[in-house]
Design brief:
heterodimer, A: about 325 residues, mainly alpha, MetI-like fold, 13 helices, globular, B: about 700 residues, alpha/beta, Rossmann fold, eight-stranded mixed beta sheet, 24 helices, 24 strands, about 30% helix
Chain lengths: ~325, ~700
């Protein structure tokens, strides 16, 4: 009933957004607001890293090995220039986290978009066409789903590295990673979109378009697609957190991005070596940053799922 | 009104509010009525009138955040609206029973119907388990479940919709409640089943002395069943009184309009009287009399002051002008209805526009091949349409009627090319449309035929603006690509269907159901088609809105010379709109003829029974013999004449041989052995009561 009530819309897009049910449910959930705030701050810092970070950790000219292994600023021997201390090469941990988050987020977003594009396209075709096309796509999806995501990503990563010449590994690493994580995640999108497409396909507006004589691919694109995107956005948000974690895992295992361009996962791996020799800050702070980022994105995703569709699993 | 003994149920100044973040909506406002022992009170109104919420408030099942904000509800003199949840729970089932609309969801699919009945009986009575079981079986037999003792241990999915609704009625009556609240008990059912359920409900309540609050949107059901009727509008009761008085001498302008907008079989009118506009949304109920914006008699006072109910005759009416209007809205007592004149002399020249020849469509509904291999079963074929031949002359309306599953919607979809026929041909203006397979070859025909769909909420893409929706055929057929011209044509189309040009910028969700259906019609008209296929275009709409849409379709037909294929299960609507009517049963056309002639003199036993399901709104008291039994599964239709298991005239020949169509003598055809063998009983003319066994 509520959706049928005509509301006094304020004018303009912003006004409409502020008046929407989505924003209302957002503003009524303090956890979500906090998560959104944290996500925004971290993404902002990562995006504007060169201006935000106190140091440029990968500029060798600014590094001083004498500053290595300094503890956080508030501890004895701490240096106020390095808020969260320094690592084995005298790099500022805070700055490496900011730059590392940049890589993590870049890989995460790119992988999500790749997976989303593939999954939505295949799911749409699968659901709308049905028959053989549907059977083939969905069986591939089933097979892939029976393996753990990280295994698929490792496999694709390994195959891609094997195919590429050795000297290109460094520069291509990040693209290989995006490709691996993206490919390993399309199934979720495809299944969801296929399901919604099956529902939408039966609705009369799609039949009306068929009666008018619109070509199938245009119906898929212009009629069905906009109506199945809601759940996709939810999955996308949650998938972003998963993609970041996957990237961190791969990097931690040493098959991710190279140490010259470290992501949060790489930083944790580097710091891990020093954990038991007392320099805990080198690994704990990147780890905490990763945890907070993933948690915030996940909380956002959960809220979005509940707000958009309480029945989605 | 207050006698020595208090009435069974008394509702006084009931007010139900739904708090939302945009303020409190008043869904039921100042509703007062009472129900006496054993009385059937009909509560009628269009969607959003607050009738279901009133029922839910009485039985204590208002969904949060809805709440009773004021008023009192008393059962047998005891106040019940302030009882706690536990006391209310004990009251429900024992004192008040409830029958919901959808029999598919009101039974628990995991328990056998017997267990559900016994559980309910044990909860509310002191019977032992054994007695409860006997009582339950007795009840099942009483509600007309054949071999009740055997079916006792069956699960709900093993019953058909009509049978399930019978079980639900048994469930509501099992603790012998004094009052049953039935919320749209027949709406989800087929017309033939609907008539059976109404008869059953009526009989049971009479026998048990149970009072019924019958909530429905269908005035016909009320006329058949109720003793008194309350008409609700925008959360208020506008008129309440004895059924006959309200129906024959409606006094409130809304009731008058409502009665006038219901098409009646046997009444030839050019236009239905219509109430413009629609029920206001809950957040914009007008001040004063809520009906005044739609009321032809509204005065300054109606805009300012809210009318109280005043007694007029045996009824009470909430209208400032009720006194002056009394008796002006009688349906049967000579209301001024324009006579329809020589209805066949319309735009057409009688040449056929659409011809179906032995059209068939089969669906493969077999299990996947691997399953078939293991369980050794063959393919299953559903013959949705199995050899339909008909001709639609230019400029006329051909209607297809029948119960659900008879294949009428499949015919519609075949004709517009949504399905490809398995057999037979579709000739559109002499050209075999079904044989065309390339997109380009079909395009010129597609322009000339369009479709109007049933569900106005699903037939418009919710993400598109109205302008884009209506312009889609213009763009798709390359009629014009010029922006200004498209805008002008969309504006003209919207005006043509009774909307305004400024509506083009809005989204579908900003419109009511009737307005959406207008948008749907505008879209269908955009490519200037000659032929419109209308699949139940008004069955999702309220009666007053239905009249608007039917009038619009009539007007458009006259202006544009359109030809309609009209699919409906509502026989009165079909009578109003059609020139020709075809009756379908299990994929076959069993009889067709010119509309008036078919309704006056139906030959096929199925047609006769179908016509008998039309509720008796004119209250002639005629006895009806509605169709007995239910439609068999179309996957394994009966041999010979598919209707023989339900037919009182069936013989051995009917069971073996499929009857061929024979001329009816008036241009129409009928496929029935009884007609061929001339053993059809005489049928009394419609106007006089039939002397046949009912119930």
């Amino acid at each position: 009933m509520a959706e049928q009530l005509r509301r006094p819309w304020p004018r303009g897009m912003i006004g409409r957004l502020l008046d929407s049910d989505l924003f209302y449910s957002f503003s009524r959930s303090p956890v979500t607001v906090l998560a959104a705030l944290v996500t925004a701050v971290m993404m902002g810092a990562a995006a504007f890293a060169p201006w935000v970070a106190p140091h440029t950790p990968f500029d060798l000219a600014t590094l001083d090995l004498l500053d290595a292994f300094l503890p956080p600023a508030w501890m004895p021997d701490g240096d106020p220039r390095y808020l969260l201390g320094t690592d084995d090469q005298g790099r500022d941990v805070l700055s490496t986290i900011i730059y590392g988050a940049r890589v993590s987020l870049l890989v995460g977003f790119a992988a999500v978009f790749l997976a989303m594009f593939l999954g939505v396209a295949l799911g749409l075709v699968s659901g709308y066409m049905g028959g053989m096309v549907d059977a083939v796509i969905m069986r591939i999806a089933d097979v892939q789903l029976s393996f753990p995501t990280i295994l698929i990503a490792l496999l694709i990563d390994g195959v891609a590295r094997g195919l590429l010449p050795r000297d290109m590994h460094e520069e291509m690493a990040i693209y290989v990673l995006i490709f691996a994580i993206g490919i390993s995640g399309w199934v979720q999108y495809a299944r969801t979109v296929r399901g919604s497409t099956l529902v939408e396909k039966r609705k009369e507006y799609v039949q009306a378009a068929q009666v008018i004589g619109i070509r199938p691919w245009l119906i898929m694109l212009r009629h069905v697609l906009p109506n199945v995107m809601g759940p996709v956005l939810v999955i996308g948000t949650i998938h972003l957190a998963i993609a970041i974690i996957t990237e961190a895992t791969l990097s931690f295992l040493g098959v991710g991005v190279p140490a010259t361009q470290p992501s949060l996962g790489t930083l944790i791996r580097i710091g891990n070596d020093f954990l038991f020799s007392g320099e805990w800050w080198i690994t704990i702070f990147p780890g905490a940053a990763l945890a907070i980022l993933v948690l915030s994105v996940n909380l956002l995703g959960d809220w979005l799922r509940d707000a958009l569709n309480p029945k989605l699993r | 009104m207050p006698a020595e003994t208090p009435p069974l149920l008394e509702v006084r100044d009931l007010r139900v509010e739904i708090p939302t973040r945009r303020g409190v909506l008043v869904a039921v406002d100042g509703v007062s009525f009472h129900i006496e022992e054993g009385e059937v009170l009909g509560v009628v109104g269009e969607s959003g009138a607050g009738k279901s919420l009133t029922g839910a408030a009485i039985i204590g099942l208002l969904e949060p955040p809805g709440r009773i904000a004021a008023g009192r509800i008393s059962l047998e003199g005891r106040r019940i609206d302030n009882l706690d949840a536990e006391a209310m729970r004990r009251l429900r089932g024992r004192r008040i029973g409830m029958i919901f609309q959808d029999p598919l969801t009101s039974l628990n699919p995991l328990y056998t119907i017997g267990r559900q009945l016994v559980e309910t009986i044990l909860t509310h009575t002191d019977l032992t388990e054994r007695q409860a079981r006997e009582h339950a079986i007795g009840l099942l037999a009483e509600v007309g479940i054949p071999s009740a003792a055997e079916r006792f241990d069956h699960y709900p999915h093993q019953f058909s919709g009509g049978m399930r609704q019978r079980v639900v009625i048994a469930l509501a009556l099992c603790a012998n409640p004094r009052l049953v609240i039935a919320d749209e008990p027949t709406t989800a059912l087929d017309v033939s089943i609907q008539a059976q359920i109404i008869a059953l409900l009526k009989r049971l309540c009479r026998e048990h002395g149970t009072a019924v609050m019958l909530i429905t949107h269908d005035m016909g059901v009320i006329a058949e069943t109720a003793d008194r009727v309350a008409v609700m509008y925008a959360g208020r009761i506008v008129e309440i009184g004895p059924v006959r008085e309200v129906i024959e001498q409606a006094r409130h302008p809304y009731t008058i309009g409502l009665m006038g907008s219901i098409p009646l079989v046997g009444h030839d009118v050019e236009r239905l009287s219509q109430i413009d506009g629609a029920m206001p949304r809950l957040d914009e109920i007008p001040a004063g009399c809520a009906f005044h914006p739609r009321c032809p008699h509204a005065s300054e006072r109606c805009r300012r002051e809210r009318p109280e109910r005043i007694a007029l005759g045996n009824a009470e009416v909430a209208c400032w002008h009720a006194g002056e209007l009394a008796g002006r809205g009688a349906v049967t007592a000579g209301v001024v209805r324009e006579r329809r004149e020589n209805r066949n002399a319309r735009t057409g020249d009688g040449r056929p526009l659409v011809e179906l020849r032995d059209l068939a469509r089969h669906f493969d509904v077999s299990a996947p091949w691997l399953t078939r291999l293991f369980s050794r079963e063959g393919r299953k074929v559903l013959r949705a349409v199995d050899g339909v031949t008909l001709t639609i002359p230019r400029g006329t309306t051909f209607s297809l009627v029948g119960e659900s599953g008879c294949g009428k919607s499949t015919v519609a979809r075949l004709v517009v090319g949504l399905y490809r026929p398995s057999r037979g041909t579709i000739l559109f203006d002499g050209q075999d449309y079904a044989k065309l397979d390339s997109h380009a070859a079909m395009a010129p025909v597609r322009r000339r035929l369009q479709m109007i769909f049933q569900d106005p909420y699903a037939s418009l893409n919710p993400r598109w603006r109205v302008a884009e929706i209506v312009a889609e055929p213009l763009r798709a057929h390359g009629i014009t690509r010029d922006r200004v011209e498209i805008r002008d044509r969309v504006g003209a189309l919207l005006r043509q269907v009774g909307l305004s040009e400024s509506d083009a910028r809005k989204y579908p969700h900003e419109f009511s159901g009737g307005q959406r259906q207008r948008i749907s019609i505008a879209r269908a008209l955009a490519s200037r088609p000659e032929f419109l296929v209308c699949d139940e275009p008004t069955s999702a709409l309220d009666v007053s809105v239905q009249a608007q849409i039917l009038n619009l379709m009539r007007d458009l037909q006259r202006e544009l010379g359109l030809t309609y294929l009209f699919i409906s299960h509502n026989l009165a609507v079909v009578y109003y709109i059609s020139d020709y009517v075809g009756v379908m049963y299990l994929g076959r056309l069993v009889e067709w003829a010119e509309a008036k002639s078919l309704f006056r003199d139906p030959k096929h036993p199925y047609t006769r029974m179908l016509l008998d399901t039309i509720p008796d709104l004119e209250m002639t008291g005629r006895r009806r013999a509605p169709v007995a039994g239910e439609v068999p599964s179309p996957i394994s239709p009966p041999s010979g004449c598919a209707f023989h298991p339900r037919c009182p005239l069936a013989t051995a020949r009917c069971r073996e041989m499929r009857p061929e169509p024979l001329p009816r003598g008036d241009g129409g055809e009928v496929a029935c052995h009884a007609v061929a063998e001339n053993r059809l009983p005489e049928r009394a003319p419609r106007e006089t009561p039939l002397r046949q066994e009912a119930d």
